[in-house]
Amino acid sequence: MLLCNNTNVILYMRYLLITILLFSGFNALANRPMNNGGNGGYSGGRAYNRPNLKVDSLRTLLATSLANKDNPADTLTINRINKLASEFIDVNPDSTLYYGKMAIDRSLAIKYKKGIADGMVATAKVYTLTGKYEKAEKNFIGAQLLYKNLKDDKSLSDCYIEYGRMFDRIANYNQAARLFQQALEIKRRIKDEAGIADAYHNIGMVSDNIGKSPYALDNYFKSLSLDIKLNDNLKAASNYNNIGEVMKEMEIYPKAREYYKRAIKIWQDAKNIQGISTAYQNLGEVLMDEKKYDEAIVYFAKSMTLTKSQDDKDGLSSLYSDMGISYAGKKQYQASIKYLGQALKIATTYNLDFNKAYAYIDFAMVYNQQRDYPNAYKYAMLAKTLADKLGGLPNRTTAALQLSEALGGLKRFEEAYAAQKEYNILRDSLKSDESVQKLTSFNLESSFQEKQRRLAEQHQRMDEQYQQKIQRQGLLSIIFFIIILGMVGILIVYYRSKRKQQRINFILEDKNHQVVQQKADLNNQADKLNELNNLKDRLISVLAHDLRAPLSTLRGLFGLLEDDSITHEQFLSMIPQALKKLEYTSDFLDTLLFWINSQMENFNSSSKSFTIKEVATYEIHNYYEQALEKGITLIDNVPTTLAVSADPNSIRIVIRNLITNAIKFSRKDDTITVTANQENDHIILSIKDTGVGMSEKQLNKLFKSKVDSGTGTNNESGTGMGLLFCKDLIEKCNGQIWVKSEQGLGTEFFFTLPLGTFKEEEAVMVS
Description:
This protein has 767 residues and is mainly alpha-helical. It contains 26 helices and seven strands. The radius of gyration is 48 Å and the shape is elongated.
């Protein structure tokens, strides 16, 4: 029995408030939950309303949320965890406890009060199912405090319903009824129809458990009407089942079967394990009441298998009692006593007083059948004491009957007479009550059927009105069709005349468009020709200047030697400088000729896979001495394993131009670094220097047809054409080229090339 004295509750509430407000650690209190599919302390398969399962979709959403490691404790994720915990209560209560604890831990981490409260309700439901009522009550009280603090009426009323179910299981029906009524008042105020239906359902269960069948039926039918209105089939199935239970106890078996079948069909369609288990038990009890014990035992065994898989102690205790009575009906008393002992053990261990009372009654009945009156008397007294405490009229009547029979067997006739007299009074009251109940049941069912009939008639009238509306619309459609048909005839005539004019206009427009397009093409060609002409003029100018300079130098040098103006030693000292100018002119001519060839329509790029390292290293080696003469460090950081797919000669020319540019605009002690790396499906090569850099204005002029090349740090000259060649060659290799620079800090050129295939045994030789 639950410990609910005021001192304990007040002390615990103080502790819980301090814990919640400070958000210190929270330890979930158990790890062995079970299904809440039991009978709520009633001999027979009652079914609670439970939400429809959406486990798979919730798991998918939760996996998406948990995958975000940067934000592992957001409120959306916590709400999904609590929702998943709630959905698992009917299929895997162990998972409910696991997710409930997870939600509480994550909520504490971010001080999310609603997440803590929802997690506490989930774990409390599991503790209720496992018979750990003190722990369940603490969690329910804590959740109520948080919901009140948050002014969350819906969650508070839901908590009242779950808390009331706990009291219903331990036969504290007054407290359960009070909580269900509080929940109903809140649900009405916030106009939560699904919640109102749930509250009616639970009030009906409590009323049924204390023998107020008419009031129970009234609430069941109210709940059922709302479930049908809201199209909530699973909750409707629970109400069908419980109405069938009441009908069975009134011995109205045909009606009971009718309602059972409605519930079973819904549960089977939904593959609801708890519902199917309850249906098997109910069918077994009907067969047991009809003394078809062998058939009843088959259904009880099926139900027991499912109930054990759910670890439902309440339902298991009830099933063991049913099995015990069935075997007693077959005169197999040893098996009967064994099953009744298991029923009593579970009911005692988990404080299931209603089940315990029925186990005592069943023991007394079996022992009376065996004429073992001392044991029959013992259990009859226990049954009577507990039945009087619980107050249910059926229990008290049956207990009085078994006590009277046991006392008679013990020849304690005066006490037996008193017990028989009490039994007669209770029986007459019960029969009178049953008559009223049957009449009430008939009236309630008739009222429900009348409501359903009126609802069906209303739907039929709406369908008829809809059909009439469709017919009227059809007639209007015919009239409009005739009008439209006449208009179409007129339009066809008009259309044909206009069509001819449109054809003529279309031909004229097409011709006009062709003329405009041809003019645009001519303008584009003219622009290209002007651009090529300008480029030709510039190339001629560059060639005239760059070829004349080294030739003039050689002519002057040889003239001085011929006139004996200089000595042979002086002539030899001037040769290196002249050779440099010739080498520069030769490189420029090679580049120019290669670029000119690339502009030809019949030029074929010899694209192949080769290691960028070999080409880059070759050019770096060629210009190493030139860089060293200016005091510049030339660094090769190109990996050996990177292969590109391009024309090697084109890439050689590009790298050569970019390195000579870097040397030209670098100073003593500057550094030039050549690097390459892979990015996705291409290679990025970089030539970076720490030289003089460029201004924003200079950057904007790069890669254009008209570039004024500045002099280098040692007054080196240039043509201004190199970068234009580089851009064109890189683009022909399906790459891109760009530059970053800051004046005074240096320049870095980048270009990309498609990724090639690297083979160690192959090496690209570039001549």
